């Protein structure tokens, strides 16, 4: 099987780099020697980067001299091969396209290598029990090694985009910019849920996390925003009961006992109302961050979801079972933040709190999120939704009323 590569594209990219220092200045930020398949091309680009790091000009003459002094010129085909790369057919304005070809082939090579490791493990009876973990780690390595496509922006460039955003806020003065949280005081403080945000809702065990998530999901969906719900604890049927009770106004106790004829009519009406909401549920107990990424991508691609709820973080299975529990939970939290940015959605993740009121098993959850909300109940039985940490607003406490019969939080 041939190894995925495009040597002409590698030469064309090197030609652009040698011809233009401005291209090297930009490419050095996110291009890497490992993107090249041909060893000589890799050494040439490494040498070009060394000149760039030293603040020296990189052209055919200086590069030839630098590689000669470093003893890598002859290993890379000599001056004749370097000149061949420099003279390779290329259009400098197309250097990004050449780089993208290198990036895609590099990823394909990683995928081939991962597949070979998986096949070798699958054929080894001694590794049968660890096959699932080998597969997961191999695929995670492919994703993690993908080169960054980020670029450095000047404040002037950023300012142009932000000024447009400020103007949009001014034009929509009095109207919510983001997706409603379902609670006006919280909307007023935060501007609603925004793209790329990780929202974490914490509470003690049986402290109302799922009820709050169901309320927020229902109100966002009712406003026309598709919502995904990844339930690691409840089945889809149990979760639907919550939606029927909260949205349809049916006493939750009726759903678990022998209903009367009148109850059946109310349940049918409420179930029909709930079924019309654009909410999509996946219930599966054993989901790791890699599988979570795939599930979220599918929800966004198929159902155009703008919000996805994960109930709850500590129930995510680890990618690497040998890591400490703290590192496993931290990986899950980091994946959620990355996915929110990558998919351009809001992720609402629920977390268990310990006796001190911090996220159980990892404080990384609080560090990764954009908004950390905590549901609390005081000694007098009063409920509050407290903003503990926020990137865009201050701390605040919002009084709530909990309708236990309907498993629903309302503004007080």
UniProtKB/TrEMBL annotation:
<dbReference type="GO" id="GO:0016787">
    <property type="term" value="F:hydrolase activity"/>
</dbReference>
<comment type="similarity">
    <text>Belongs to the helicase family. DnaB subfamily.</text>
</comment>
<dbReference type="Pfam" id="PF03796">
    <property type="entry name" value="DnaB_C"/>
</dbReference>
<dbReference type="InterPro" id="IPR007694">
    <property type="entry name" value="DNA_helicase_DnaB-like_C"/>
</dbReference>
<dbReference type="InterPro" id="IPR036185">
    <property type="entry name" value="DNA_heli_DnaB-like_N_sf"/>
</dbReference>
<keyword id="KW-0238">DNA-binding</keyword>
<keyword id="KW-0347">Helicase</keyword>
<keyword id="KW-0413">Isomerase</keyword>
<feature type="domain" description="SF4 helicase">
    <location>
        <begin position="172"/>
        <end position="412"/>
    </location>
</feature>
<dbReference type="InterPro" id="IPR027417">
    <property type="entry name" value="P-loop_NTPase"/>
</dbReference>
<dbReference type="GO" id="GO:0043139">
    <property type="term" value="F:5'-3' DNA helicase activity"/>
</dbReference>
<dbReference type="GO" id="GO:0005524">
    <property type="term" value="F:ATP binding"/>
</dbReference>
<dbReference type="GO" id="GO:0005829">
    <property type="term" value="C:cytosol"/>
</dbReference>
<dbReference type="InterPro" id="IPR007693">
    <property type="entry name" value="DNA_helicase_DnaB-like_N"/>
</dbReference>
<protein>
    <recommendedName>
        <fullName>DNA 5'-3' helicase</fullName>
        <ecNumber>5.6.2.3</ecNumber>
    </recommendedName>
</protein>
<dbReference type="InterPro" id="IPR016136">
    <property type="entry name" value="DNA_helicase_N/primase_C"/>
</dbReference>
<keyword id="KW-0547">Nucleotide-binding</keyword>
<keyword id="KW-0067">ATP-binding</keyword>
<dbReference type="GO" id="GO:0003677">
    <property type="term" value="F:DNA binding"/>
</dbReference>
<keyword id="KW-0235">DNA replication</keyword>
<dbReference type="GO" id="GO:0006260">
    <property type="term" value="P:DNA replication"/>
</dbReference>
<keyword id="KW-0378">Hydrolase</keyword>
<dbReference type="Pfam" id="PF00772">
    <property type="entry name" value="DnaB"/>
</dbReference>
């Amino acid at each position: 099987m041939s190894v995925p590569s495009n040597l002409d594209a590698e030469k064309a990219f090197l030609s652009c780099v040698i011809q233009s220092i401005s291209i090297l200045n930009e490419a050095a930020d996110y291009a890497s020697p490992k993107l090249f398949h041909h060893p000589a091309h890799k050494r040439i680009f490494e040498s070009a980067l060394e000149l760039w790091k030293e603040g020296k000009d990189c052209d055919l003459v200086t590069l030839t001299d630098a590689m000669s002094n470093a003893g890598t010129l002859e290993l890379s085909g000599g001056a004749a091969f370097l000149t061949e790369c420099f003279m390779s057919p290329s259009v400098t304005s197309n250097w990004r396209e050449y780089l993208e070809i290198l990036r895609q082939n590099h990823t394909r090579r990683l995928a081939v290598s991962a597949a070979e490791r998986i096949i070798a493990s699958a054929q080894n009876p001694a590794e049968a029990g660890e096959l699932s973990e080998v597969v997961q780690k191999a695929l995670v390595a492919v994703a993690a090694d993908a080169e960054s496509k980020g670029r450095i922006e000047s404040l002037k460039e950023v300012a142009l985009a932000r000024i447009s955003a400020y103007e949009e806020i001014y034009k929509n003065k009095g109207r919510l910019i983001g997706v409603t949280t379902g609670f006006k005081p919280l909307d007023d403080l935060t501007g609603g849920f925004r793209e790329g945000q990780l929202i974490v809702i914490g509470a003690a065990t049986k402290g109302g996390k799922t009820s709050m998530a169901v309320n927020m999901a229902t109100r966002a969906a009712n406003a026309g925003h598709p919502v995904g719900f990844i339930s690691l604890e409840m089945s889809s049927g149990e979760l639907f009961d919550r939606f029927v009770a909260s949205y349809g106004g049916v006493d939750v106790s009726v759903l678990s006992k022998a209903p009367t004829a009148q109850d059946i009519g109310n349940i049918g009406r409420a179930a029909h109302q709930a079924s019309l909401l654009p909410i999509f549920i996946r219930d599966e107990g054993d989901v790791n961050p890699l599988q979570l990424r795939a599930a979220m991508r599918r929800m966004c691609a198929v159902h155009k979801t703008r919000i996805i709820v994960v109930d709850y973080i500590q129930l995510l299975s680890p990618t690497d079972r040998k890591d400490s529990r703290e590192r496993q939970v931290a990986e899950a939290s980091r994946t959620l933040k990355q996915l929110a940015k990558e998919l351009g959605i809001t992720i609402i993740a629920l977390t268990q709190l310990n006796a001190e009121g911090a996220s159980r098993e990892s404080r990384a959850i609080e560090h990764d999120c954009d908004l950390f909300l905590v549901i609390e109940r005081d000694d007098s039985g009063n409920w509050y939704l407290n903003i503990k940490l926020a990137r865009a607003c201050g701390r605040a406490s919002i009084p709530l009323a909990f309708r236990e019969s309907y498993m629903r939080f309302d503004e007080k």
